[in-house]
Amino acid sequence: MEYKVKIDEFEGPLDLLLYLIKEAKISIDNINVAEITEQYIDFIHNMEKLNLEIASEYLVMAAYLTFIKSRMMLPKASIDNEEIDYEENPEEKLKMRLKIYKLFKDIIPYFKEQEEERSNFITKIPTDLSNEFKLDSKEIIIADNTVYDLLSAFNKVLKRYQLHRPIKAKIKQQNITIDDRIVELRLLLKQKQSLRFIDIITSDSSKEFIVVTFLAILELAKNKLIYINQSELYQDIFINYIGEEGVEVHE
Amino acid sequence: MNRTEMLAALEGLLYITGDDGLTPNEIAFVFEIEAEAVQDLLESLTDMYDNSLRGITIINTAGRYKLATKKEYIDVYRKVYTNLNKMRLTNAALEVLAIIAYKQPITRAEIEDIRGINSDNILRRMQSMALIKEIGRLDTPGRPILYGTTNDFLDYFNLSSIEELPELLEQLEIDEEIEQDLYTNLAKIKIN
Amino acid sequence: MNRTEMLAALEGLLYITGDDGLTPNEIAFVFEIEAEAVQDLLESLTDMYDNSLRGITIINTAGRYKLATKKEYIDVYRKVYTNLNKMRLTNAALEVLAIIAYKQPITRAEIEDIRGINSDNILRRMQSMALIKEIGRLDTPGRPILYGTTNDFLDYFNLSSIEELPELLEQLEIDEEIEQDLYTNLAKIKIN
In this complex, which chains have at least 3 CB pairs below 8 Å with chain A? Predict the structure, then answer.
């Protein structure tokens, strides 16, 4: 069986199940769980072969489907067909979940249309009248603004900013520059000669700090001031000091 | 102020308030008129804009009336503002928003039960876009956050109010019995 | 595009550009027409607005054509402006507060750069309402004032600390970007 679709095209295991059901041209009520389980697990296996990352939810569903399938193979207790107990019957429960999920899935095109429609109407920013009319009152009678009004105002202003200007390079605040970090690391390496990679970042290091550290190490390696080694996969990475810039390594 | 003057003044007001717009109550307050007269003014103004020489129209999103350009000439405006309204939400985001819109107030766990997949990042993103907000907390252990939609949500989807959403179950051709089952079981259904 | 369509599109365009307006050159560029045709369009549009039912008109200031409200109804606009400002924070005020809340400490120049409009009056008003305050000065020529939010601001928005503000989309994106960087750099390190 050839898989043209990738797992990241699905919004989750239920979406994948709906896809398989649609492919099989059957309704949710008539699905054969044993059959669909095989197809589902097949699909997952193939994705694994392609080295695609699979969210744990997909594997949980695979286990759940297998559970239903195995349960169905057991001799059936007398089930009262008139009253399906969803809590007790996992197969019915799964069908119900699929139906509920499909309800929302089927309404998506409506939201897409509405989104498209609205994007065709453009409104202008309110005219600033603060120069025309003086305001004497400092009070606000009905204070019903929330933080979401602030967030909304901020988003609007940002959208306008992007609309009126060419995309500006994002200015990220860095508490430490790469050059600073290079100097720090060189000093440290000079003293210790060799460092474990995990020792130069701490658990409370900020993401920026970690990135800067990475870049500093890359820069040091590029300039042949250090060499990096690791004896085995998942073992500690060592950063080893070679020597000063411009100084040849002597035998 | 006679009706003609009110119409002209209303157009000026809508121009000034731009995307803020005005609620019918605010219009009633300004002109000291009844709600019916407000609707009459708005209709007359809309009729005036319904003319091929006019490039603006009136829309109602999130309960506020606002002037907006007619959609026919969007390409002209795109020429001036190159990145005008290009952004579109992903399917995953739309799924989460649809679930919240119909089932609000709703917790993250309930959303994830329906979708069958972790939705944390999308929720954070939708909250940052001010399309959803925290509207309270459930009185159960852990006091989980309850989410609901915002006015920006209504505006984004060109809705005057949440009641304008189509009936969810009408989309599916299913009989009433199943409908009943779906509703009663919506709460119960959880993956083990 | 025929003349009727151009008139309608021009009205829409003037509406969107609001106080910025358009130069005849810009109009010529958008519609790919000659200067004479631009003048003709503007005259026709001005004639259309010369009607007692209309509340807006076209003005020409410093070579830019822009829509403006007719003077006759200034009392109506004042009534709305002053009363709405008494009843709630307007979008303009919320914008200034939001920029300060998220970007503090920040100078007036930076606020105006983000908003693209002079924000002097609003800043003064927010300061007199004690929602913002001066929290220092920047060590650059002119030593511009740095603004920040106050405890009254927190009270007003029902926050116990400024950290409680909802996350910004740009913050989410920067976080993701850094994570991406982290992964790419990790991969590089492995190769070395």
Answer: B, C
Tokens 């852990």 correspond to B142
C-alpha to C-alpha distance for A106 and A85, rounded to whole angstroms: 26
Query: Does A73 have pLDDT greater than 70?
Result: yes
Phi, psi of A31 (to 5 degrees): -70, 145
Residues of B in contact with A93 (CB under 8 A): 189
Contacts 24+ apart (CB under 8 A), B25-31: B26/C80, B26/C84, B27/B65, B29/C83, B30/C76, B30/C79, B30/C80, B31/B1, B31/B6, B31/C76
pLDDT, tens digit, 9 for 90 and up, residues A90-148: 888 899 899 999 999 999 999 999 999 999 999 988 888 877 887 766 666 666 788 99
Chains that touch B (3 or more CB pairs under 8 A): A, C
Token pair of B116 as six digits: 């069958």
- Angle (CA) A6 A12 A17, round 5°: 80
| CB within 8 Å of C158: residues ≥ 6 apart | A146, A147
Whether the link from the prior residue into B105 is cis, omega within 30° of 0, is yes
* Set of chain A residues whose Cβ sits within 8 Å of the Cβ of C192: 218, 221, 228
Residues of chain A contacting B17 with CB distance shorter than 8 Å: 126-127
Answer whether C70's CB lies under 8 Å from B10's CB. no
Q: Is the ipTM of this complex over 0.90?
A: no
Nearest Cα to C166, choosing from A136, A117, B123? B123
Nearest CA in chain B to A84: B181
Q: What's the pLDDT at A173?
A: 39
Q: What domains sit in chain B, N to C, each tagged with a CATH number?
A: 3-72 (1.10.10.10), 89-192 (1.10.10.10)
How many angstroms separate the CA atoms of C144 and C139, rounded?
8
Report the C-alpha gap between B172 and B144 in whole angstroms: 31
